[in-house]
Amino acid sequence: QITLKESGRTLVKPSQTLTLTCTFSGFSLTSSGMGVGWIRQPPGKALEWLALLYSDGDKRYSPSLKSRLTITKDTSKNQVVLTMTNMNPVDTATYYCARRPRVGAHFDPWGQGTLVTVSS
Amino acid sequence: QPVLTQPPSSSASPGESARLTCTLSSDINIGGYNIYWYQQKPGSPPKYLLYYYSDSDQGRGSGVPSRFSGSTDASANTGILVISGLQSEDEADYHCMIWSNSGGVFGGGTKLTVL
């Protein structure tokens, strides 16, 4: 069974840096072509793709957020970490991590998500 | 950055078919993209449903019923999710997605109500 779970601070102040950890099981990020991505969803709004990390270390970022995002992995811990700098109230959203399988370019499955609120 | 446009809402009755659309911006041609569809129920993460590129290149996620299918209308530059034999449990938000040269792009989502 493949599972992913997001963790990190759920309340951050404006201008602070957000660090989220995705801890997964049931697959390995050492498998060729495997990936883990981050997607967010503001309350009542659309999904927004943020970043993607492949098993070979290749990283992709949303062009509009690229300057604020960093995605890394700790293969030994089965974790992928997303950091987002200079947080703003508009960044308030549920943040999801999801697996991108070796075959196909979809996200499946997704973690339950974690609601991050940006407020002073 | 491409834009995917989905109607905010749609409705249909049980047993009928629902046709949900995802229109790509004019700067990209749907013929060159896989369209991915996700279902999201309140309080839950999105669930992968299927992808559609062509009749010979498409696939459903594990456990997704054959009632869910994809297609495109090239003349309208639009991807389509068809749900046949609607059931009350199909009431949810549906999101389309593509991978562009600059990364992943989601549509705004359509809330499907089963009357």
Average per-residue pLDDT of chain B, rounded, comes to 96
Number of strands of chain A: 10
Helical segment count of chain B:
0
* Helix residue percentage of chain B: under 10%
Rg of chain A is 14 Å
Biggest pleated-sheet summary of chain A? 6 strands, mixed
Largest interface: A-B, 24 and 24 residues
Strand proportion of chain A, as a percent range, falls in: over 45%
- Main pleated-sheet profile of chain B: 7 strands, mixed
What gross morphology of chain A would you assign?
Answer: globular
Distance between the termini of chain B: 36 Å
Shape of chain B: globular
Class per helix and strand makeup of chain A: mainly beta
- The fraction of residues in strands of chain B falls at over 45%
The quaternary structure here is heterodimer
Task: Tell me the radius of gyration of chain B.
Answer: 13 Å
**Low-pLDDT stretches of chain B:** none
Helical content of chain A stands at under 10%
Figure out the total of helices of chain A: 0
What class, by secondary structure content of chain B?
Answer: mainly beta
Mean pLDDT of chain A: 96
Present the secondary structure layout.
The complex is a heterodimer of chains A (120) and B (115).
Chain A (H helix, E strand, L loop, with lengths): L2 E6 L2 E2 L5 E8 L9 E7 L6 E7 L4 E3 L7 E6 L4 E6 L8 E8 L13 E5 L2
Parallel strand pairs in A: 2-10
Antiparallel strand pairs in A: 1-3, 3-8, 4-5, 4-9, 5-6, 7-8, 9-10
Chain B lengths: L3 E2 L3 E4 L5 E7 L10 E6 L6 E8 L2 E4 L7 E6 L4 E6 L8 E9 L2 E4 L3 E5 L1
Parallel strand pairs in B: 2-11
Antiparallel strand pairs in B: 1-3, 3-8, 4-5, 4-9, 5-6, 7-8, 9-10, 9-11
Describe the protein.
The complex is a heterodimer of chains A (120) and B (115). Chain A is an all-beta fold and 120 residues long. In chain A, 0% of the residues lie in helices and 48% in strands. Chain A has a 6-stranded mixed beta sheet, with no helix packed on it. In chain A, strands 1-3-8-7 form a 4-stranded antiparallel beta sheet, with no helix packed on it. The model of chain A has no long low-confidence stretch (mean pLDDT 96). With 115 residues, chain B is mainly beta. Chain B contains no helices and 11 strands. Chain B has strands at 4-5, 9-12, 18-24, 35-40, 47-54, 57-60, 68-73, 78-83, 92-100, 103-106, 110-114. In chain B, strands 2, 4, 5, 6, 9, 10 and 11 form a 7-stranded mixed beta sheet that branches. In chain B, strands 1-3-8-7 form a 4-stranded antiparallel beta sheet, with no helix packed on it. In chain B, a hairpin with a 6-residue loop joins strand 4 and strand 5. The radius of gyration of chain B is 13 Å and the shape is globular. The model of chain B has no long low-confidence stretch (mean pLDDT 96). The interface between A and B is medium-sized, with 24 and 24 residues.
